[in-house]
Amino acid sequence: MPTPHHPDVVIIGGGILGCAIARYLSRLPGLNITVVERHGLGEQTTSYAAALLTRIRPHQALTALAMETFRAIEEMGQASDEPLPLRSVGSLQVSAQPNGQRQLEETALRAAEAGVTAEQIAVQDAMQLAPWLDLTPDTAALWLPDDGYIDPYSLCMAAG
Ligand SMILES: Cc1cc2nc3c(=O)[nH]c(=O)nc-3n(C[C@H](O)[C@H](O)[C@H](O)COP(=O)(O)OP(=O)(O)OC[C@H]3O[C@@H](n4cnc5c(N)ncnc54)[C@H](O)[C@@H]3O)c2cc1C
Predict the structure, then answer these.
(1) What are the residue ranges in the chain where pLDDT is below 50?
(2) Distance 108 CA to ligand 1 centre (A)
(3) Where would I find the FAD dependent oxidoreductase domain in this sequence (predicted)?
(4) In principle, which of 65, 79, 115, 139 could form an S-S bond with 96, CB 3.0–4.6 Å?
(5) What is the CA radius of gyration of the chain?
(6) pLDDT, position 152
């Protein structure tokens, strides 16, 4: 019979990855899980992240993982007294290079397949969204309004 001193699973490190693994494994009934952390939970690399959250990635599997992140954030927010501090400020991708513009078109296609809003916008609109960008008229711009960022420490603590 497992006891707290004889766990089934030991996770070394209580950053976002260790806490996320612990959270998912804890759904398996009867599994005794211990997270070993030499500092405080979420205090190391995790706390330094910009924690940008984008939904559409270069590969379908990564997009699925990113979408799961958003779903988990919503689920954890519903389970606590208040929603997690996800700021849906959107993300803007720009390129004046043909290769980059092709990538933006591919991202727009992948977004459409995944049911995520992605708008190809005029360069003037991009500069209104981000006035510090000095864009040339041949720049292509893609706006994903549902992307954002989150406080990484709060996310880690909610998962842990
Ligand atoms: C400036 C910056 C910006 C970033 N921006 C983004 C971003 O926008 N989007 C994004 O997705 N990612 C971003 N990242 C990356 C992201 O922060 C890391 O990928 C993520 O935090 C790694 O999580 P982790 O749990 O592996 O590591 P950590 O958070 O470092 O956790 C590892 C933990 O293991 C513990 N540990 C290590 N060895 C032992 C041991 N022997 N015994 C006990 N405990 C141990 C450490 O104390 C630490 O707490 C950014 C990172 C930085 C630095």
Answers:
(1) none
(2) 30
(3) 8-158
(4) 139
(5) 19
(6) 96
Q: Which residues line ligand 1 (CB under 6 A)?
A: 12-18, 36-39, 43-46, 48-52
Backbone angles phi, psi at 56, to 5 degrees: -105, 125
Predicted pLDDT of residue 72? 94
Residues whose CB is less than 8 angstroms from the CB of residue 53 and which lie 6 or more positions away in sequence, other chains included:
66, 69, 70, 73, 86, 147, 148, 149, 150
Which residue CA neighbors atom 9 of ligand 1 most closely? 51
The dihedral through the CA atoms of 102, 124, 114, 71 has a sign that is: positive
Residue type, 159: A
Is residue 142 classed as helix, strand or coil in its secondary structure? strand
pLDDT of residue 83: 83
Say if pTM beats, i.e. exceeds, 0.85.
Answer: yes
Give the tokens for residue 33: 């899980």
